[in-house]
Queue: 4 jobs
Job 1
Amino acid sequence: MGRRSKSRQPSNARKPNACETTTAAKTPASTIWAICGLLALAVLLVFGQTLSHGFVNIDDGTYVTQNRQVVHGWTGQGVAWSLTACRAGNWHPLTWLSHMADCQLYGVHAWGHHLTNVLLHAMNAVLLFLVLRRMTGSIWPSALTAALFAIHPLRAESVAWVSERKDLLGGLFFFLTLWAYVGYAQHRFSWRRYLTVVVLFALGLMSKPMLVTLPCVLLLLDYWPLGRVASGQWSVASDRSRDSNSASDAASCPSLATDHRPLTTLLLEKLPLFLLSAASCIVTPLAQGSAVAPLEMIPFGTRLANALVAYVGYLREFFVPTGLAVFYPYPAAGLPGWNVAAALLLLTSISVVVVVVRRRFPYWLVGWFWYLGMMVPVIGLVQVGSQAMADRYTYLPLVGVAMAVSWSVAQWVAARPRWRPTCEIAATLALLVLMGCAWRQTSYWRDSEMLWTRALACTTGNAFAHNNLGLALADRGQNDDALVQYQKALAVSPRLTVALGNFGAALAERGQFDEAVAQYQKALQVDPNYGEAYVGLGNVAADRNRWDEAIDLYRKAAALKPDLPEAHANLGAALAERGRWDEAVAEYGKALEISPGYVDAHYNLANAMAAQHQLDRAVDEYQKTLALKPDLAEARNNLGTALWQQRREAEAVAQWQAAIRLRPDLTGSLGQLAWARAASSDDSLRNGPEAVALAQRLVQSSDDPPAQWLDILAAALAESHRFSEAVAVEQRAVAAAQRQGNAENVPPMRERLRLYQAGKTYREPSQARGR
């Protein structure tokens, strides 16, 4: 007879604890899937609107649109660059690779980059739920925590801002590291599981260095809910054995029956993780470089005071998420002493309370110190930039506060079952209100103008917001309104170089060249290496037709800041004015290598190609220009001219018609379309009445119309068989050409005059010409 094996349990196997038997074991898989689906749906409902948003004028150029390595997608050179680049004040190669992947998939089209952000945030919300359920065995507190994380208005900045991909990618690896750590902690030691934790943590640091505090978070989770700490009164294991059958069990007990370990053992276990954090702490300041504000600018005492107030400010925003802005200016006059003292008292009091009640409410201690600890790298003790706070910094830290709130609610309801329906309704309503607030907050990220207008409505003394709103208005052609914003920025911060430079540009746009030069010179006094100021001075010289001076200034700007596309593009334009076409084309190429989405560089390169009769290349560049800016009427006009010269007459007519719809007063398109309707060799394109109407609009737009315009009107009248009028107008054209010094045009005009006198129309010869 064969032996029957007995069912045996390995000596290291664990028994399910009360949490798991009462909660996790009884929860059907369909419920878990439903919660995951609802979390993803909530994220889509709130943040899906960003797919219709554009890029904004804060860092999106640095991270995507004007980053020559990123916009080309995944290339060998780009991947190598991502591993060594310290641009934007961070070393985060995975973030760069993520943006490159988006450009590979979507090009420089904002909707695709926003889609990736939304998907990453949805994944993070689902992962947070699954991780918390795995750690605690509790379904509904985990779901509530994940929901608060998913749809809180504070998440708008991280999700709606393309440049904050590092938050989302860092969050992804943060939660994956927690998942791997729970798997490691609940089993006998395994190098494979341990190395998985280490590798995921390293990937997180390569996405956002703020994750340096993650090893400390793991220590907190060892205390609760994992219950791995064996240090006398600090252990929560006794709570489990004492209260495992109580109504509050689902809210307070750890889910893993692991062996308790001394704190020193747990610290040594995480030594490789702490070493990775230490390495990141060394690399990050090197990457930040000059972005770190020196102590002479912001003393440490001022930073500490602001940090205390900021801690309280973030808590206020969590519970009352109003007045959120993309940029909170650092208080120039300092903070009131009472404000700092009150913040210190509140933070100290909460810290004392959570320690005192740790055995009854262990999740208070964990959630609170999760929040305090994770905020340390970004609380401002090492000040990077000039902001006092930033909503994006709360992406992971406030998960701790959400946990504390959710488990508190769960424990309160578990002890009072009759209140459960009321609490469920209240929680649902609260989440719906948060979704509405988050949707509204996300809508402010639609474009730069709305974003900075909102920031100014929520803050005071915000020079940065005034300057960037000015930039947004200038991009819309509202130069006078932009100038007002620059003046307001300088009233707050007179030494803000970007505002000085932009103010100079706005003055130059109005023809106030001397005043513009004065502003550029002030900017250079503040920062002698401010390349944009030399570009502005070059623009003034170009406006005054001092081309050699402009060329020298643009070259200086390019030498100071080689990655400044405007320096190369404007240098190309100045060289083109001097007829140095090859050099001009080379500079346009450099500008486009830096910023492939640079519309003016594509347009000017197209013009240079057309001037050199390289029509195929010109047409290609005009089409690239219009793909980026479809409403650029001048590009459509010039594309039409190039197509006409290639004998692609129907396509040329379509471009001129589109140009006139965009700019009804665009004389070039009016004239060329009128000529095509009057004199095209293609019978299907001629239309005498339309030609006359267009040519009359053209001629009537000037008190002394050029001879060429009169020539077009005469051809249009002849096409309509109004020959006597055509003869009279053509005679005016001949006289105007002689008077205006265009003697070379007189012979062909007289030839057409003879045709009209003979009652004949004019037809464009086989070798077409643009007019």
Job 2
Amino acid sequence: MEHSPVGDKHTGGMRSIGLCVYPFREVHGGMSVEGDATVSTSLPVPEIATLSHVVNAYLEDEKTVVVKLSDTLRLPFNSSDVVVTNQTNGARLTVTNVDIVQPQRVALVGNLQLALGAQSEWNPCDDVTRMTKVNENLYQFTGKLPSGTFHYKIAFNGTFDNALPYADAVLTVPEGGATVVFSYIMYDLTTRQREIYDSINAPHATLPTSTDGVLSDLLAITLADAPDITDALLVTLAERGQNSVVPRSVLNNVRYQYTGDDLGDTYTSEATTFRVWSPTASDVQVLLYNSEMGALTRQVAMHKSDQGTWYARAEGDFANWYYLYLVTIHGVTQTVVDPYVRAIAVNGIRGMIVQLAATNPNEWETDAHKTLANPVDAVVYEVHVRDFSIHQNSGMTNKGRYLAFTERDTKGPDDVVTGVDSLVQLGISHVQLLPVEEFASVDENAPDQYNWGYDPRNYNVPEGAYATIPHGTARVTEFKRLVQSLHQANIGVILDVVYNHTYVTFDSDFNKLVPQYYYRTDYSGYYTNGSGVGNELATERPMVQKFVCDSLRYWMQEYHVDGFRFDLMALIGVSTMKRASEELHTLNPNALLYGEPWMGGGSALAGAELVTKGQQKGLGFGAFNDDMRNALVGSMFDAHNRGFPTGSVGQGGPVKTSVMGSIDSFAAAPGETVNYATSHDNYTLWDKIAISNGDDTEYDRILMQELVMAIVFTSQGQPFIQGGDEFLRTKNGNDNSYNAGDAVNQFDWGRKARHHDVFDYYAGLIHLRNNHPAFRLRSADDVRKHLNFIGSPDNTVAFQLTGHANGDAWTNIVVIYNPTRANAIIVLPEGSWTIVGTQGHVGEASLGQAAGTVVVPGIACIILYQ
């Protein structure tokens, strides 16, 4: 999913908001696409109340109910006007206090933080512009500003408060600068609105100094005794109606945090045990079926167990049986597919009990992870399972299937090498697969349906559409065979994982098991939308974080995958990513982890938790370098926008920063930056260049593409390429082909035959990088010690790697990028130099000698060594 620069590529659905369900709009490649109304809820859509009413209520800790009102009321509020009833037993709970709820942090946002000394990527949880709480209704900040015009807003807990009347207040500081006092009033007693004041625009504003008479629409109700979370509670406010109470943050209590490793079903030939986390349930049953679509065969009652879990043991051999949970929560009973299930019926309608050892291919026990000393040693190749082999000219038998990756000696047009052998020819170290966790946007029984798969449904099961048959355990065994085959070719497997949202919200299995716990919601009960597609998983909550980490470990242990690429990683959260990195590197020190350091919309996650660029420093995972991408190919918002190799002037600075591994930008070490020009999102590299440079000859556009990739592969960091770019893959200008089908997305292996010179250039770059560790420096200190820039004409970049960098056999290396159309003359460091890279050619064989100066042809990368 690209938020930088665009949205996502998920299929449509219905977004659930409280009890209301309405169609939502999704962002696909920068375009708004109507969600298709395929997901529904069994609850009716209520009429919107026009009178003052209770909007929503949450049990936030053992004895606190937070109530959201449709309008404000004035404090003090009589606690006798609040009634909390236990609907399960009819008892009335004692209310001891009613107070307003205040945000934990209120801060200023805008370009004024630059003048105040904050980082350019401002974090609302930083103390630099955090406002001081004067009283329950007033926050203030005082700062010295230079002269100039400044814009500012207010943020709560890392999120913008878009309800402010001044969405973008403007402050003009006079010459000489001034000390400015900013004031934020939660509720102005006169206007009944929220207000921002500053001492320049409103020097005589009267500010409240007491909590008396404060207006609020958010109340904290304190109970005398902690209720049972399995009981249904109802809160009633005088003249404001009533609403049910949903246990939410109270479930973060340690007594509801299960730490065991047996969630889901655990099979033996003697019995199968089941454990599920559903702390608010009053009853849970296991429904067992002896066939995929057959009627109920057996029902087993579960009993309450440790930390909010339910447990059952079914005696007998249940291999290849199917099951569901029947869960009752606050009087509502629903069937649920186990989120921890390891196999499923077709389209995920039931869980499947399997003996996992029986799914292993021959010699699976000797299969081993891809070794990787450092992330900079990786060359990642992104590919969609179906795209890779589905074309009629692929030469592969298992077209569109996992098993295509097990085929060797496949040939395409003009006897060109295809498939895995082509990857070996190219020299890449890892294949990154677009999502293979079972997703909802295709019918697994329909062989011609297509989607990228960024709409997860069952996180621990391979997608059935890529198996030879979607029923039974074929998908499990065949995906293991894919991993095994790539490992035999010395290629690692990276999974593109989507733990930031799910396909459905209200009717998801997560929500049925523990309503509104697994998703971020505001106090009104609205599902927040940091993903841009209707919901975001609340990975900061203990049992959601546990699920994500358990799932990642399962894929690494059971399927031997070598790493993960995190979709919209910003939403996963720093604490979750840190824990995942620690646990995965304990399992496999060679694990390769990285992700998108952005999101698809405003998130409810605290700003300090958002994994934006820089937040990954020192935590063992990397981030996509969109700064480099924009410098190389131009903005993805504008197809006609150009980058450094395609004619944009003034991009030398960002290119140099990327060459250095972004260690002077967002990375603590080169291994933390994923250097790339294009990925599955947006245009292929060839299509982007064809649109932005449509008046250029095909020959010149090929030179531009080769220069783009020369920069990627000779820069410090971890290089990444979109599969098919090595033979000028085109999607005919489609910049968001998530559901465009095979005709647009398939690899046309005939293009490799026609553009084998481009393939050879890519392969030459990759093998040069693999063979010369100077291009793979591991620390910031090594980069600063061995890499320095040398003089070159305007709009060119030249640098040298010195002193047998990183143990390289070559003493010194010079690399020069010339994106201009004219020859560039570069003064070389002292001595004689051997040329190994020039326009259209790169390798280790000598292409000539140079001393004193070298002439660099237009649109070219020159590589020389001593």
Job 3
Amino acid sequence: MRKRRRWLHHLSRPVGLVITAAVLAVALPLAIKPPAALGPEAAQREFSADRALEILRGLLRESRPHVAGSAANKEIRKRISDLLRSWGYEAEIQQRFHCHPAFASCAPVENIIAVKPGNEGRKAVLLTAHYDSSWAGPGASDDGAGTAAVLEIARMAAHDGAYRNDLVFLITDGEELGLIGAHAFASHHELFQRVGVVINLEARGVTGPSTMFETGEGNRSLIRILSRELRRPVANSLAYEVYKRMPNDTDYSVYKALGVPGLNFAFTGGVALYHSRLDDVAHLDPGSLQHHGQNAWSLVTALADRDIAKLQSKEDAAYIDVFGRFVWHYPVSTASGITVLLTVLILLGVALFLKSDISPSGVILALLAQITVGALLVGGAWLLRWPLGEWVSTHPIEHPQPWAAQFALFALCPWAVWVSCKLFAHRIGFGSATLACWLSFAALALWLDFNLPAASFVVLIPMVAFFVGLLLDMLRWRSGSGPVLATFFGFTTAGYIALYHFFMLDVVLPFSLSHVKAMPLVLLLLPLLPACFASAKDPIQGWRPALVLAGTVIAAALFHLFIPGFSEDRPRGMNLVYREQGEGHEALVYLESSGNRGDPVFVEANDFALREFPTLYASAGVNPRSGPALMSRPALEIPALGLAGVEAVAIRSLTQNFGDGHQVRTLRLTLKAPVGVEQMVIGLPQHAAVSEAHVNGVPALEQGAVSKRSDRPNLISITHPGAIPIEVEMVLAGPPPDKIAVTGRRALPESLWAEFSATWPRDAQPVHRGFRAEIVSEFTVSND
């Protein structure tokens, strides 16, 4: 018995707690990594990534970009519809020219729809992904993986028995251009009216677990189903709260805005390959595809036989997965009550155990010590943001070898604790420090309950664990060892929450925001302080350990500087862009890259120099509200190639006067794109706010259009406009402009690329819009 008590006593000491944190830091990434891919021999009712990869290879056999409206995309669409028909589906093609008014983006789209009828057929489960790619790459992950998973599930469902509800397999077009296909389906297809729940598959990288990062409002019922059905769930409501405040969108944004419940999944590792030429089948992690399909198949089969009308709950859930094995969840409406109850019980328990070691002055000093350790950690991480993320050229989010920078941030933790112990330990008792720690947790819980209730679990779970430990300690009160289990349980759960969110932020934040990355680690340090103070009763002599730890942090940060920020497998995104503005104007070739610096060797070898020139927002007649008027890029002036730009068949403004003195000003454009122009971009008039716009009679911009973006777009883009003249009508809230600018984008001429290909760096790949030529044409507006 004495040996067991001694073992428990050591478990709650600082060394035991630090070892526990180290184990968590290693175990957590391993626990939530994607599962192994199942081979083609897997049972027919088991999702197989190998079978889905075979489908994906067939779709992307040329491994080239396929933007909505392109010939390459039409070929992909045919292959998808042929597969669905071969499995017995009537593959419907919803074909239309459409615009999404929130993005002011238009394109011809071809959505692919297949339905497995249910026994009732009143409501439907919608499983969806998009098959178009970005301009730069083949889109094997974004969103070929989602498309392949949907197709493999459609094949599996075709051979399965009938379900209660209809299953709708929707593979949309034009997502990369502004959710155009999803908006067309929701606006113009009668089947959408029967959709009761949506499962959307996405990606923002090439690897990582398939994470459920977004749900709709009233998600408690769906979270219960997710918790019960998924074998390896990865989801937490704090990530959802963060995502709601980000400007990012997926197809589910369209359905969510219309009140349809849903679950949105994505994997986000390897973001350096996102929207790049290397987003191909060879770089796609089969485990991520396995996780994607496994999650979707489990939910599809579970929801297909449920009463979907009862899925919409009256409240949301707070939730987090535990080592990717199950989801701990509770209704957010109970958070305040749980917080108050736990606070009372914990304070009573601590007072009962440690009343002789608690003093008001000690509690106040302990609170100051907590503030100090938090400030040292976050402040130190703020100083590290320069060597880790700003002095060197790195990807905006991902680093190919992040371990040195991560170690530097982790090493800040013992440094901050040691300094705090040096300043406060000899004046604070264990009881005062423990009481102050859980008072801080309770205060943070109350703040979250009123401001971010779905995120309250980050402190409620450690509070629950600490209280359970107190109850167990009460059973062994006579041991005289104090709240040993409470200390260990509270620290372990707080450490799990802290490290979980540290690694979560690692895939969405760059090292230039190291201070934000480090914030979750404060939760790790607060429960560690009481144990450290208890082990340092005498004043700590000297600052040598703190200096050694500080030197370790600096050494790791400096070592990080010598690790290349890019590699061939994790390249820098860099586009070569030709720009010609107006007849007789200069022509430029410039580099578009993260940080706008480009590869220094390439810049020097080709005599590029930083130049300032107008952005598309600031070209003639364009309102620069949504962006800077000038941009600075490495550029080279070259003779104009004389590429044909967009032609203006007619441009005129009309003013209608009404009897009540009301005026309506309209700007009407008739534009024609020459052969080779893949996208035309119309700059909205300067000094004349546009309240609405139509392209070929389709609403293309509306003042009240729903979007997560804070400002309305001030460019109207039309992708693959074709040879037919485009009619654009804009209703103006101000006077009409004298001039307007229209940009025609086309592929970069091969002859121009040949001049630079020999010196193009191996660690650079085109991304997003990719290599291109932009011809800016300026037109005079005639007023009627």
Job 4
Amino acid sequence: MESQQELAGYIERATDLPSASALALANLRQSVSEIVDKMRNHDSLDVLESIVYLNLMSDPEEYRETDHEGSAAVVELVALIAGSGTVVGNAAQPGAYDMKDQPEVDGVQACGMTALNAASKWRLFEALQDENPTSGLSFQTVIRETSLRNTSYPHMLRQTLDAIFSHDDVIADCVAATGSTPTEIFRVLDAAYSVRERRWNERLLGLERVHAIYLRWQEGDRSELTEAEAIEALGAVWANPANAAILDIPEVAAETGLPPDKIESILDLFTSSLEHDSAVDLVERFFRGDNPLRLRPILRHPSGRRLVVHESLLLPAFRERIEEALKIAGRTDRYLRRRAKDLEDAALSHLKSMLPNSIVHGSFEYFIPHPEKPNEVEPSSFTKFVESDGLIIVDDVALIVEAKSGALSQRARSGDSKRLGQDLTKLVSDAASQAERMRERITKDGGLRLRNRTWLDLSGIREIYSVTITLDDLAGIVTVTDELVRAGLLPGINLPWTVSIHDLRIIGELVERPAELLLYLRRRTLPELTRTFLATDELDFFLHMLRAGLYVEPDPEILAREIPNIPPTADQRRRFKKQRTQFLTSRTVPLDDWYFYQLGSKKTPAEKPRLNVQADLLRLVDEIRDSGLPGWLSTSTSLLSCDETTRQDFIEYGSKLAQATRIDRQPHTLTVILGDRRQNFTVLVWACRPSNVTKQSFDRHHLRYLAAKKHQAQALRAAIIVFNEDGTFSHLLFDNREPGPNPELDADVSTFGLTKLTDMNRAQTMRRLTKILGD
């Protein structure tokens, strides 16, 4: 609300976008000037460390992302000013702690927040003047660079880095480029973090002494000694806070066991020296996405002292800083191959864990028609071969996997629209094109002719998704899929799911059944999704699905094209028209609580986030999965895809049909049609077999009925969930043959007297049940 009011205020005071931009920039510069003034006559590193404490240090037991008001961006803003040539503060001289002569930290914090607000308006007004189709994405990218930190859990990022930098040839190249092994670099960076933590823990122990003196004061001890003791005790905690963070080479050497000269060289790799830049220039570059602290998060003050600006920058800087050194040394080839292969292997491993019964084809080559040879129409004549990072087959579902281990360039991060478009083409567009190339061969040819001349039969595949895994976290960019489509970076149909390797791992640890992943893919790849839900974090989408379904009303026009046999109803058109955009604020608090408890950072037990679906339906889904019968995955996923009321009906159908069968000793069925796209369009039938009818005769008759119903709907799939007389699940019947003209099935539609598709709805289904049971 405040942001909207501030935006309105800029618009009221400005005559056009350029003047609004100039006004916001002037306000930003004013905030910087005020911070500079508040730092004068104080040690600027004391101011910085106080800001670090105010924004980033909190009790892990009490921490909640949605409640935490601290900002890493404010810390980095103050660090840039403190280390600039504009402000030179020497180390505070030892002496008695003077409570009246302390920096105005709250004032600096307020100015920092004002600067953030002004900068966001400045960048917004600048983006609105840019006619480049990627200008919106450029704005998103710069805001992301400014405001997002710790997009991956540190332990996951560390494990990924350990894997990439564990290969002997990569280690050798790292030593040649930096003079140190990756392990040695990690040891120094870990020590740099632990030094500050240990010193602050020692300081904060002094608060107990302060409290004891306060109690004596309350009890009436007002002696001069008590007052002097209190000042001394407060000083031990709060005086010269920068001393808690200043890096001391001998101390780091004692902690790591490494020689001082090696420690010095490693720290130099990650050190920023900013004394030759003005505060205003540094801050403006920061808000353009050019943050020197991103790769060099250790600040060298003009006085020669240095400290880690904040620990959230250390681990993410490791990979890109070493990559930069390898590039300068001309030693990137082996590293890049290892990095790409590690990402492919990790991506396939995480997906396999979610789809335990799947068949995985990793890193293979197959033939496609040569673009310059129009006579190549049959797979046996194809002469051009291309590579795929992976293909996962489970039931009749295929996941085409592309792994992209590159990163956004500095120019792209700073909002250069042209360079951002080029980088996203390599990371997102190319992967989508490669996946679409395979999708076309599967759908047209029914399989792939592999490089070794063998045939991979995929004729039974009915549902295909492309999954692009990135090493770089593109949070805030790939979550605005619709923006990528409008910028021409993604096609409007067959959208890929682009996700970072760490988010994929987290989703893999949360998914408890394969149907949950397929349900998310169905939701996440809808073009309508990111027009309906806005989020900066992939996990917000996934956690919202677990909790509330992530359902969007499908576009009636797309629905009519995809499923022409069932035209959209007036009610569907009305619901789609009324659908409004929702912003998904952070949904990750329960996830943080669970992870931090698992890691030991929190002592309070926390439940793992799980799919919010009725337990009885989950039991049926698991029984269908455990049967392993054809159609188990698509059928169990369709059962989860509806709202709570419909899911409750699904739970009751089996028992009610069984009750009817026990009354008249006859088979009974109920049919519903589900799906919002052709590839998940499913005829789903509940049926109960009387004990006096053999399974063989029941299945023979009902498979013919199922084929007729599927033909009537021209659906890709149809399934019957068969129940026993006692209401327990028996087995699954499934038909996923390609639909099309069939006179024999036309006759069966008439023979069975099938209900018209447009008459099949929930109310009609419930009326049939009521009639059967005579209630």
